[in-house]
Amino acid sequence: MRSNTQYEDRRMNGLGERRFSGTLTDEFDLWRLARPSMGELHEVVRGIVTAFTERRHGLLRALDIGMGDGSITGLLLTDDKLTVTGVDNEPEMIERARERLAEALAGGRLEIVVDDALHYLEAMPSGAFDLIASGNALHNMTVDHRARVEDEIWRVLAPSGLFVNADKYAQAGEAHHRDLRHQVNLFFDVLLPREKYDLLRQWVLHYVEDEAPDRLMPEADTVERLSELGFADLEIAERRYMDAVLVAHKP
């Protein structure tokens, strides 16, 4: 880990997409307000991470894919056994994370990289991280791009490592459509009273785009694919409507 600024901006080579910028970044706190269960799911992630590190000895290396404003990264940093790298391709979100996690950056426990997740992972040696976490990032990728990222997560994760992701894993059939209606209603409840009409339009369209066949992230398909890669003990540890915490271990 670097001993200077612990902050690196890499060329992204056109890989991946940048779906959070401008107003979506500026008003990100309202997105949180319309996702009231995310805090609960993040606490589930914290418990899973703590149970994992308690069984391990020495300092462990953690990666947060799509760190955004640093919510998951900050959670990881509460565990003294972890040094953390956060990667994201949205410079505006990274700036929020840098402000939020300034102490960890200054203390050398955190490295922040501005890069596409796939590009970053492909440059890492096999087994580089003991723990890989993510939160609401993978569902933003197209199916093919996400599959390549999952391949690299498997390769870059060390043996006996942990992968945990709090994200939008679609349930089958009517359950998914029910959850989608619930979330869209929450956006209306939060944004209409504040007269954030353009932001409401952007978020609803964002969620509509997430429903496209080349982007939707079904729970069952993900579990099957990660199992084929070799992950074991896969489970959905917790679910709140559209969002769930997926846990997988590398033997």
**Count the helices. How many?**
11
Oligomeric state of shown chains: single chain
Domain count, please report it. Answer: 1
- The average pLDDT value, as a whole number, equals 91
SSE order: EHHHEHEHHEHEHEHHHEE
Could you name the CATH topology?
Answer: Rossmann fold
Helix content: 40-55%
User: Biggest sheet, in brief?
Assistant: 8 strands, mixed
N-to-C span: 26 Å
CATH architecture: 3-Layer(aba) Sandwich
Query: Would you tell me the structural class of the helices and strands?
Result: alpha/beta
**General shape:** globular
Largest sheet: spatial strand order: 1-4-3-2-5-6-8-7
Keyword list:
single chain, disordered N terminus, Rossmann fold, 8 strands, 251 residues, eight-stranded mixed sheet
What does this structure look like?
The protein is an alpha/beta fold. The protein has one domain: Rossmann fold, CATH 3.40.50. It is built from eleven helices and eight strands. The chain has helices spanning 23-26, 28-33, 38-54, 71-77, 91-100, 102-107, 117-123, 143-156, 174-191, 197-210, 219-229; strands at 7-9, 60-65, 82-88, 110-114, 129-135, 157-168, 232-240, 243-249. The protein has an eight-stranded mixed β-sheet, sandwiched between helices. Strand 2 (60-65), helix 4 (71-77) and strand 3 (82-88) form a beta-alpha-beta unit. Helix 3 (38-54) runs parallel beside helix 4 (71-77), helix 7 (117-123) runs parallel beside helix 8 (143-156) and helix 9 packs antiparallel against helix 10. The longest helix is centred in the last third of the chain and has 18 residues, at 174-191. The chain is globular, with a radius of gyration of 17 Å. The two termini are 26 Å apart. The model is unreliable at 1-7 and 9-15 (pLDDT under 50).
